Amino acid sequence: MAKAVFGGGCFWCLDAVFRRVRSVRDVVVGYAGGRRPNPTYEQVCTGVTGHAEVVMIDYDENEITYDKLLDIFFDIHDPTQLNRQGNDVGTQYRSIILYLNDEQKEKALKKIEELKNKGINVVTEVKPLEKFYEAEEYHQNYFAKNPNQPYCAYVVAPKVMKFLEKYGD
């Protein structure tokens, strides 16, 4: 099993999509990329901790590549929006790739360069994962537990549908 860590807006969205990727074995939502140890959701929401809402993905690298996960990541969020995704505004919603090794770093930077060469103004941050803090239990698999919650119905569900339309079941 391998791991990947991405942030691109509210972690409920990324969680809901990556749980549908066939070769992904687990997704854990959490916080990373900031300064405060053991942050809470309320602290991260203020934007002062420096953390982003992220997902840690466990996947079978014999069945899916890191490059394919990057493709999905860039397809399901807008990497051109600085410190926001739609109406979610703040550094906690920034586009970020937290790499676990030099190979992931190189692949992330190569993908960003490819997008920039297509004229896409990517602002995605790429930095090493220093520490991952698991989010509170009620955030884990939130969309599946709360599909009718307004944010889930109007923000998360369309991202899931976009993913399913492009990548199938």
Summarize the structure.
The protein contains six helices and eight strands; from the N terminus they run βαβαβαβββαββαα.
Q: What is the helix fraction of residues, given as a range?
A: 25-40%
Note the beta-strand portion.
Answer: 15-25%
Straight-line N-to-C gap: 22 Å
Multimeric organization: single chain
Q: What is the count of DSSP helices, taking H or I runs of 4+ residues?
A: 6
Q: What is the residue-mean pLDDT, rounded to a whole number?
A: 96
- Gyration radius (Cα, Å) is 15 Å
Q: In total, how many beta strands?
A: 8
Helix-strand pattern, N to C?
EHEHEHEEEHEEHH
What low-confidence regions span 5 or more consecutive residues with pLDDT below 50? none
Largest sheet, strands/sense/barrel = 6 strands, mixed
The largest sheet has its strands arranged as 7-6-1-3-2-8
**Structural class label:** alpha+beta
The outline comes out as globular
Structural summary, described in words:
By secondary structure, the chain is α+β, with helices and mostly antiparallel strands. The strands form two sheets. A six-stranded mixed beta sheet has the order 7-6-1-3-2-8, with helices on one face. The protein has a two-stranded antiparallel ribbon with strand order 4-5. A hairpin with a 2-residue loop joins strand 4 (84-85) and strand 5 (88-89). The chain has helices at 11-18, 41-45, 66-76, 102-117, 142-145, 150-167, and strands at residues 2-8, 24-32, 52-59, 84-85, 88-89, 95-99, 125-128, 132-134. The model has no long low-confidence stretch (mean pLDDT 96). The chain is built from six helices and eight strands, in the order βαβαβαβββαββαα.
